Amino acid sequence: MQETTIKDDFISKEDLSELVYFETFLNRMGFKRIDGSIYGLLLLASRPLTSEEIESTLGLSQSAVSLSLKNLGHYGAVETWDSPENKRIKIHSAKEDALSIVASIFRKREGQYVEEFKLMARRILKRAQQQGNQRTQKRLQSIINTCEAAEAVMNFVISLGRLEIKEQYENILKKLPDNLETLIKLKQADGLGQLGQITQMASEGLGNRLEKLRQNIMKTGES
């Protein structure tokens, strides 16, 4: 990130110095460092910002900011609307709902990567079965089970992000460990490895558990 300047009181120098952590974190998730700095600025700013304010604060070019805002918007990390003072000016802000961002990343990118890797493993597994290669079969089945477990968790997060109960997220997350603990306590079933059993239960049961959890929380909120 280039040298920064502050032309307004929408962010303190102390908060501005923390943007490097947003850069690093989002970069490790597959985003560019500039995406992290812009997202961090919009999240920490006390009000929505114009593209020009982002450019001048972070020392970035107009094209770089525009491209980054488009990418962040694609993943639901930021939202853009017309300025109340001037309809020709767009203002930008980070979305409050971080869960929807993670769900969007799972849905639009990570889920695709896992699916592609799983399909590859299935193709090779089929050839290994035809060749009678037991050693390779076992390893590939473990990869497939792991991919399916990852998909189950991602689908759970995506489903949670789609529910319009944002005010209940904190309660849901507090209850998640208890609901997921049942997966860990599973005993091995006949002919089914532990990871395969966990994957099967996760795939079949997380959706139902999420819905029951939502209903219980809603009932608690009404009482």
Structural commentary:
By secondary structure, this protein is mainly alpha-helical. It folds into two domains: 82 residues, Winged helix-like DNA-binding domain superfamily/Winged helix DNA-binding domain (Arc Repressor Mutant, subunit A), CATH 1.10.10.10; 125 residues, no CATH class. 70% of the residues lie in helices and 5% in strands. The protein has nine helices and three strands; from the N terminus they run H-H-H-E-H-H-E-E-H-H-H-H. A three-stranded antiparallel β-sheet has the order 1-3-2. Helix 3 packs across helix 5 and helix 7 packs parallel to helix 9. About 3% of the residues have low confidence.
SS element count, helices: 9
The radius of gyration is 22 Å
Number of domain modules = 2
Q: What structural class results from the helix and strand content?
A: mainly alpha
**Amino-to-carboxy terminus distance:** 50 Å
N to C succession of SSEs: HHHEHHEEHHHH
Q: How many beta-strand segments? A: 3
Beta fraction: 5-15%
Mean residue pLDDT: 79
Strand line-up of the largest beta sheet: 1-3-2
Uncertain spans: 186-192
Shape: elongated
